[in-house]
Design a protein that fits this description.
- The chain has ten helices and six strands, in the order βαβαβαβαβαβααααα.
- By secondary structure, the chain is of the alpha/beta class.
- The chain folds into two domains: 135 residues, 3-Layer(aba) Sandwich (Rossmann fold), CATH 3.40.50.2300; 56 residues, Winged helix-like DNA-binding domain superfamily/Winged helix DNA-binding domain (Arc Repressor Mutant, subunit A), CATH 1.10.10.10.
- α4 links the parallel β4 and β5.
- α7 crosses α9, α7 crosses α10 and α9 packs across α10.
- The chain is elongated, with a radius of gyration of 19 Å.
- The relative contact order is 0.10.
């Protein structure tokens, strides 16, 4: 039976049409009400302060701060917030970072409407919901070694086609240090060369090229 109090939902997505579509779809449910929309982290925090939603649908990829970073910022101020990540992407790193930030669930935008509604109700009830399509990726991520923040910096530059000397100059470190970072990140990614390291990192969602 639907609760007498509807689930108050905040939709966070930088695409207006996505927000509009979600709001229209969810507002027809008797136990759901979209009380606010936001396109970025600051707007999401402002909406939380004003509307106190009981559930937040969070796009993984937002401008400026990512969905995972926005999730962490919201939970720092509102630790009881229930957050469901919604994404067109299924890179294992994005799933891992989102849940590590405190999200209770992760679902793909390609999911059927009935599955989305089930995920929303599960997360609102305080339970975890992981899209069956990404569950194997999350399991795989647990077995992978994480890159350090410096290795990530170097990896992003490698992905842009920068050589060791250019990276060393950009980071103001010795070229031999860059070589060491490249060696370590390739070992962790199990890549044979820089091109394969970039491909693996993009496929897993470790880095983005946009």
């Amino acid at each position: 039976m639907p609760s007498s109090k509807p689930i108050r939902i905040l939709v966070v997505d930088d695409h207006f049409m996505v927000r509009m579509g979600l709001s229209a779809s969810l507002n027809v449910e008797p136990d759901m009400e979209v009380v606010a929309e936001a396109a970025n982290c600051e707007a999401a925090l402002a909406a939380c302060r004003r509307h106190h939603p009981s559930l937040i649908i969070m796009d993984v990829r937002l401008p400026e701060k990512s969905g995972a970073e926005t999730t962490a910022a919201i939970l720092k101020e509102f630790p009881e917030a229930n957050i469901l990540m919604l994404s067109t992407h299924s890179g294992e790193e994005e799933v891992f970072r989102s849940l590590q930030a405190g999200a209770r669930g992760y679902i793909l935008k390609s999911a059927l409407r009935e599955e989305l509604l089930r995920a929303l109700r599960e997360v609102h009830a305080g339970r975890r919901y992981i899209d069956p399509a990404v569950a194997p990726l999350l399991a795989a991520r647990v077995s992978h070694r994480s890159l350090t923040s410096r290795e990530l910096e170097v990896l992003r530059m490698v992905a842009k086609g920068m050589g060791n000397k250019e990276i060393a100059a950009a980071l103001d470190i010795a070229e031999v240090t860059v070589k060491l970072h490249v060696s370590h990140l390739m070992e962790k990614l199990e890549a044979k060369d820089r091109t394969e390291a970039t491909t693996i990192a993009l496929q897993r969602g470790i880095i983005r090229m946009d």
